[in-house]
Automatic annotation (TrEMBL):
Gene3D superfamilies: HAD superfamily/HAD-like. The active site is at D9 (nucleophile), D11 (proton donor). Pfam families: Put_Phosphatase. GO terms for molecular function: metal ion binding; phosphatase activity. It comes from Liquidambar formosana (Formosan gum). This is Uncharacterized protein. Its cofactor is Mg(2+). It comes from the Eukaryota. Residues 250-269 have a biased composition (Polar residues). Mg(2+) binds at D9, D11, D178.
Length: 279
């Protein structure tokens, strides 16, 4: 299944909520968060939250313990492990924070399933403060996309992933997401790719309002069980389809090699293609 690349958003896709807001709520920062959330860029908001936690004496380890309690549906964990076991190339594309994403994935035993995590970099400085950097430096080199937040254009990241995997043959891309920021990368998908928006969330609503701009097939999901069912069904469908093509090609080659032994009038019947999955 080396021909499939599955790219996951993180917040409200892999985990059921938002990891940033989870920390804000669980660690008593709601009031400050509400004051600053609309006054500065998103990564700056979270930097301000981390500064406040440091002022209160909260350590990175305490933040990590808080993150480990964030809800993650067990069927999503199972879906990720199954897709990885089937040979899919799994990646994350999130406008979250590296420390948050990696802490949660490691806690649930699935960090090693992903070949790449694209998110806003973080590090713990010499004073023990969790420090955040934007994925795209919007002060020195703004990305110029009006669909995305200033600190990350997911469409640009998807294009880089597409280019980096093109040398290894044709790839089928899956993109799973929920928010407005997931619309831009969905536009970068091609025919034969699949986009899986979470039902009744902003990405799903935008696709429903502008369905003709999306080239990929659309498959909605609502919860962890449905994500697992839809994703694995699509992966297995593609696997069967590819195997049928391989068998058909081999059958035709063998027929050609043994043409002198084939009785007149015999025909080679092509293998049927898998029926398309209903949206």
């Amino acid at each position: 299944m080396v021909g499939i690349v599955v790219v996951f958003d993180f917040d409200r896709t892999i985990i059921d909520g938002d990891s940033n807001k989870w920390v804000v709520t669980e660690m008593g920062l709601t009031e400050l968060f509400q004051k600053v959330r609309h006054t500065i860029p998103w990564d700056s908001v979270m930097s301000r939250m981390m500064e406040e936690l440091h002022t209160k004496g909260k350590t990175a380890d305490e933040i990590a313990e808080c993150l480990k309690r964030a809800p993650l549906h067990p069927r999503i964990t199972a879906a990720i492990k199954s897709a990885h076991a089937l040979g899919c190339d799994l990646r994350i594309l999130s406008n979250g924070l590296q420390f948050f994403v990696e802490t949660i994935l490691k806690h649930h035993g699935i960090l090693g399933c992903f070949s790449e995590i694209n998110t806003n970099p973080t590090f713990v400085d010499e004073e023990g403060r969790l420090t955040i950097l934007p994925y795209h430096d919007f002060t020195s080199s703004p990305h110029g996309c009006n669909l995305c937040r200033s600190n990350m254009c997911k469409g640009l990241v998807i294009e880089r992933i597409q280019a980096s995997t093109s040398d290894n043959g044709k790839k089928r891309f899956f993109y799973l997401g929920d928010g407005n920021g997931d619309f831009c990368p969905s536009l970068k998908l091609k025919e034969g790719d699949h986009v899986m928006p979470r039902m009744n969330f902003p990405l799903w609503k935008r696709i429903c309002s502008s369905p003709t701009v999306i080239k990929a097939e659309v498959h909605a999901w609502s919860d962890g069980e449905e994500l697992e069912r839809v994703l694995l069904h699509l992966i297995n469908t593609i696997s069967v389809e590819e195997n049928n093509i391989d068998i058909s090609s081999t059958s035709q080659l063998n027929s050609s090699d043994c043409n002198s032994q084939t009785s007149p009038g015999s025909t080679n019947e092509a293998f049927p293609h898998t029926l398309p999955v209903p949206h």
